[in-house]
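From: lab user (bench 3)
To: helpdesk
Subject: output format question, protein + zinc ion

Hello, I'm new to running complex predictions and I'm not sure whether the block I got back is the full result or only part of it. Here's what I submitted:
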Amino acid sequence: MSVETTVIGAEGGCSCGAVRYRLSSEPMFVHCCHCLDCQRQTGSAFALNALIETSNVELLGRAPEPVQVPTDSGHPHDIYRCPECQVALWSDYGRRQVMLFLRVSTLDQPHAIRPDVHIYTRSKVPWVALPPDVPAFEAYYSTTKQWPAESLARRKAILGK
Ligand SMILES: [Zn+2]
Ligand SMILES: [Zn+2]
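Helpdesk reply: Thanks, we reran it on our side. This is the complete output you should expect:
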């Protein structure tokens, strides 16, 4: 994972401070997602998601609450938001409960984590230029080909595959 320095112990939270969290591991992998859903849901050009075990995100304040959003695939997608200020902290794709897509920019040091892959670049806004040294994919990608072995082992431990 592209982590400048360790983010173990790094904290983050929503805008009002009701939801606070602390990471107890590095992320398994980090997506910069250029899909149209992420663009709409963030109101921006892409979403930056750190994939991490739910058990490695320690809640220090109130728990964010799930809001279900529609998906093209039909698989459930819950966005967890602060119950007060409604800022989105993370997503649970597929309602698996064990793995979060943490919104990287909610960290107090939001530049501490860089993406490992750019995905769904087919819908990337034309004025965002991608770095040549980070793999980029038109749509999704092969987890087994891109993830480091250690991260695949962590993923298998929670998802069983
Ligand atoms: Zn809040
Ligand atoms: Zn996306």
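A quick orientation on your result: The chain has a mean pLDDT of 95. Let us know if anything else is unclear.
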